[in-house]
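ASSEMBLY PREDICTION REQUEST
Request ID: AP-0331
Submitted by: J.K., bench scientist
Number of chains: two
Total residues: 343
Priority: normal
Notes: Please return the full assembly, not individual chains.
Input sequences:
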Amino acid sequence: MANFLFVMVGKDDIPLYQTGNLVLQREGISHMGQFVVHSSLDVIEELLLKANTMNLKIVDHYEDYNISAFVTAGNVKLVLLHDLKNDESVKAFFLAVNEYYIKILLNPFYEINTPITSPYFGSRVRNAAKRHLKP
Amino acid sequence: KTTNTSRDGRPPSSPLFAFNMANPVAVLKRNGETIFAKVEKINAELLILTYGSLVAQLIKDYEDISAVNQQLDTMGYNIGVRLIDEFISRSGQGRCGNFKETAEVIAKVGFKMFLGVTANVANWSPDDKEFSLIFDENPLAEFVDLPPSCNALFYSNILCGVLRGALEMVQIRCDVKFIKDVVRGDEITEIRVIFREYLHEAAPPSDE
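STATUS: Completed
Returned structure:
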């Protein structure tokens, strides 16, 4: 499995879910990965004004890493910080996560735009990452 | 001569006699499928989402989970007293020979007609006054993930009310309740139906 950091961001930049094995080091700054993902949100929003697809592919770079993004129908941003070259596998991963996210939405007890705590969702996303995000 | 005769005195020499049913289970199953094929259907997700938002709203309004269970049962009761006419007119189902037949009709024809799934009748009590309906799948609870605060909730409790109301309209008073529910983490979904009495005076149903 490649090194990656996957974050789902909802409305008003609320993080809904996060997983990954990538830990970026920066002196004095913990959670650098989240910082990078957050800063890419501006770029994503700009692209959204013009794009008419859900998969935005690579939107930004940071050192050796790429940042790919996918926007769901409800404007939830799936952001992946990774070092893969293969666009297709990232797209496959995003589509799989989108399916799982839709199932979460169909749960009447899930409040939209709140963090996703379901362990099933977590294991499914991690399995999808194992399946698709291979270096 | 046999020492154990069935309750009406006939020798239990064949399954039909033991059941004393007008229609064996296989016939009921077929009936159920035929009727299901003919009735108008709606989109399953529409029903699931509507019922889901109903339950979620009840929880927000009442906050006490046992009150929500009670409310779902009452709503189901009001549905059941009206649903029974629809059931009888669509299925052409005649009078059941005994309570065992009633159980199979509910499981194979009733549920099939309205929810598209059949249940299995099991766990009869020794006096044949109680039985369980066991469901392999519950379409109402398809995507539900119960939060820990709602662990006492019987998500599909409306079904118990529906059964209670429908049976009361055919002069059978029963208690109906959930024993196990997959939504709560049990392995199966099981509803228990307990016969109380036959009603002889047709009292008008109260809507409270």
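REVIEWER COMMENTS: The longest helix of chain A spans residues 32-50.
SIGN-OFF: pending second reviewer
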